[in-house]
Amino acid sequence: MSSVAASSLSDSSAAPKTPRPVLQLVDVRKVFDGFAAVDGISLDIEEGEFVTIVGPSGSGKTTLLRMLAGLESPSGGYITLRGELINDVPSNRRPTCLVFQSLALFPHMTVGDNIEFPLRVRKMAPEERRRRALELMAKVRLPEDYYAKNVMLCSGGEKQRVALARAFAYDPDVLFFDEPLSALDYKLKKLLEKELKDLHRESGKTFVYITHSLEEAMVMSDRIGVMRAGKVVQIGTPEQIYSTPADRFVAEFFGEVNVVPIRRTEGGWLRRDGKPVAVAPGLSIDGDEASVVIRPEYMRFVTEEAGADNTLSGTIFNEYSLGSRLQYQIRSRTGRTFLVEVPRAAAWKGDGEVTIGWDAANAIVVGG
Amino acid sequence: MQTVGRTRTHFLIRAWTVFVVLAIYLPIACGALAGLSKGRYFAFPVRIFSTEWWGKTLDSFEIHVLVQNSVLIALIVTVLSVLFAFFGALAFARYPWKGRRAFQRLLLLPIFFPQPVLGLALLLWFNALGISPSWKTAVVAHLVWIVPVVTLVIAIQVFSFDPVLEEAASDLGASRLFTLRTVTLPILWPGIWSGALFAFLLSWGNFPLSLYTAGADSTIPKWLYSKMVAGYTPMVPALGTMSTLTAAALLLGGGLIRLLIRRRAELRAREG
């Protein structure tokens, strides 16, 4: 994990050379009326890192972020910032800043006043405030004449930039983001994701981002943590999470997958239909139940010329176009649904009765 | 066909508007005219016009005291009711707490209670407590009825206030007081302003509560009523017209001041 953080630091000039956790969480919990929204999370976030926490709604990620920002106090555990315990430090005394999901821009103020708010709190002189605000506006690519514009008259993307500039004006050590891009349309979201990544690199600040969108997490993050029911189930680089999910939940959360339940017997691992399963060597699974997870792009049609380590037969009952790729839904003899995704050039030409398969090297086996 | 229909609709809308405006303002205009009559008695049409009664009204010591009482009561009621109602509205619309629903219902009740009965009940209470009724007890009586109304008015504004804004302010380093001054109050201002206006006008025009609880002190509505019942003079419509005109002037002035403040803020924002 530390090697990952180090590589992300090498291209950010402002960050110190030796990685050390800027934010440290030890067994942090938050209990609401007997319900543990955050159930014992331990996590080190390195200086200058871009960490994304993903999870379905209700997994506790927003509560976690609110505790880090000081808007909620933990029921247990420790949060330290640069080695100092900050459990009970109120939000206005923390060198951290949160970009809210709703952005929380002050509706009665202009763009300039919004950005200058944290500077006004610090009693900075008006001319200097203005200079700084205009600097930040240039940084987030807001035109200069927006300075006196009513913030409520800005578009969604512009509001996003104002919120970002305001957070930067506070000059925090760590920036938190609570799904700020979730309300934007796809194209704008993609653009802002890239800009955010650029800002992260240029500023060298530590970013902690939460989202329920896998794509957002994959594009921007140095590390991704996956949350489920108040716990972090896996943390690692986007590549690690994608290719070696810790369990079926992580695998399924990260997009459409095919799942084949298997069980251990004396003769090796068997599928439900009794056929043996070829798995990659060196598999270590506790317990006798496991699942083979195969992404649709690794599932393919088996013909006489092109065999596969594992095969099963079924019937095509749906075909979708994904643009450059085609996706087929196939129902197996045992009634399970499988997804096969192929390039458009490799469209299936035969009839509806097919044999599909996958190679052991392309499948992931997870416990449970 | 379409345009004919639209023209007819427009005509009907205009006719209705004119009718409503006339229905509202004609009686007021008649009252105003009655105050400008030279005659001693209330009669239409007015035979000879004169400003005699206006002059008498302006010179009358009795009326000075009345106006003073009414203004004093209305001002005190405005300040106190906005103060109570502001915090009441926060409790009403902002924070979830045990018993909030009961509080919301309880608060509404006095508004629906008939005012003469409320006034009488309060008078009985003041007697029982040994407090002799005066303009001060009238202030208390007005508050009982007006605070709930103002609370509702401000609560509407509070409902639309997003508490996340306060969290954001705090997250950006602001203290609670700074947040209240720069975020919460400015956003709630329109509600507070309307609440204050309501409080003043409701107190200024209140008759049933003042009748029972102001004791020997008289207010404008109280005096108008007593003169209508016995001892009519054209000073009644004159004073009525004056108080209407004053209220209109105050409203206009308030609006103007708000406009000026906004202009100045915009100008400042443009200049930086």
From TrEMBL, chain A:
UniProt keywords (A-Z) are: ATP-binding, Nucleotide-binding, Transport
Which family does the entry's similarity section mention? Belongs to the ABC transporter superfamily.
What is the name attached to this protein's record? Answer: Fe3+/spermidine/putrescine ABC transporter ATP-binding protein
GO terms of molecular function: ATP binding; ATP hydrolysis activity; transmembrane transporter activity
> Any keyword tRNA-binding?
no
Q: Residue ranges of the ABC transporter domain?
A: 23-254
Q: Which GO terms describe its biological process?
A: quaternary ammonium group transport
What SMART domains does the database record attribute to this sequence? AAA
Species of origin reads Pleomorphomonas carboxyditropha
Q: Which InterPro entries match?
A: AAA+_ATPase, ABC_SmlMolc_Importer, ABC_transporter-like_ATP-bd, ABC_transporter-like_CS, Mo/tungstate-bd_C_term_dom, P-loop_NTPase, Transp-assoc_OB_typ2
- One Gene Ontology cellular component: ATP-binding cassette (ABC) transporter complex
Q: What is the lineage of its organism?
A: Bacteria, Pseudomonadati, Pseudomonadota, Alphaproteobacteria, Hyphomicrobiales
Q: Which Pfam families match?
A: ABC_tran (PF00005), TOBE_2 (PF08402)
UniProtKB/TrEMBL annotation, chain B:
Q: Report the locations given in the UniProt record.
A: Cell membrane
Biological process GO terms, please? transmembrane transport
Topology versus the membrane: Multi-pass membrane protein
- Which segments constitute the ABC transmembrane type-1 domain? 67-254
What is the top-level taxon of the source organism? Answer: Bacteria
Specify where it is mainly localized.
membrane
Q: Which residues cross the membrane?
A: 12-36, 71-93, 105-126, 138-161, 182-204, 238-261
Pfam families (alphabetical): BPD_transp_1
GO cellular component, as recorded: plasma membrane
Q: Which InterPro entries match?
A: Bact_Polyamine_Transport, MetI-like, MetI-like_sf
Keywords associated with the record: Cell membrane, Membrane, Transmembrane, Transmembrane helix, Transport
Q: Which PANTHER family match?
A: PUTRESCINE TRANSPORT SYSTEM PERMEASE PROTEIN POTI
- Family as reported in the entry's similarity comment: Belongs to the binding-protein-dependent transport system permease family. CysTW subfamily.
Q: What is this protein called?
A: Spermidine/putrescine ABC transporter permease
Please name the source species. Pleomorphomonas carboxyditropha
Q: Taxonomy-wise, where does this protein's organism fall, top ranks first?
A: Bacteria, Pseudomonadati, Pseudomonadota, Alphaproteobacteria, Hyphomicrobiales
